[in-house]
C-alpha cells in the first residue's frame, strides 16, 4: 500500500492514523514504519502501543540503510545495471 503521509515528524513518539477514504477502515502507521489497517479504533491503539509486537516495517525507501561492510569486504555482489530503454522524453510517432 502506498504511504499516505509525507516524511515529516519522526521518532519513537510519532504515530499516525489515517482514515481510508470511502471505507470504514483506519490505517495505522507506527514510528518504526509498520502499517496495518483496522476497523476498530481501540484495536488501532492496541496495535500501535504494542510496538514491536506484530510490527514489520515495510520494505522500501523508508527502511533504514544497511550498515557499511568493513574495508576490503563486500556484503553481497553488486546488482547488474538495468538495461537502458527508450528515452521517455521522446514521443512515439
TrEMBL record:
Residues 51-93 are annotated as: Disordered. It comes from the Bacteria. This is Uncharacterized protein. The lineage of its organism: Bacteria, Bacillati, Actinomycetota, Actinomycetes, Kitasatosporales.
Amino acid at each position: 500500500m502506498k504511504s499516505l503521509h509525507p516524511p515529516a515528524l519522526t521518532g519513537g513518539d510519532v504515530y499516525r492514523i489515517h482514515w481510508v477514504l470511502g471505507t470504514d477502515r483506519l490505517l495505522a502507521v507506527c514510528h518504526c514504519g509498520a502499517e496495518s489497517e483496522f476497523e476498530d479504533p481501540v484495536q488501532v491503539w492496541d496495535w500501535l502501543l504494542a510496538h514491536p509486537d506484530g510490527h514489520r516495517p515495510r520494505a522500501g525507501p523508508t527502511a533504514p540503510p544497511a550498515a557499511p561492510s568493513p574495508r576490503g569486504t563486500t556484503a553481497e555482489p553488486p546488482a547488474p545495471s538495468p538495461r537502458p530503454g527508450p528515452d521517455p522524453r521522446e514521443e512515439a510517432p
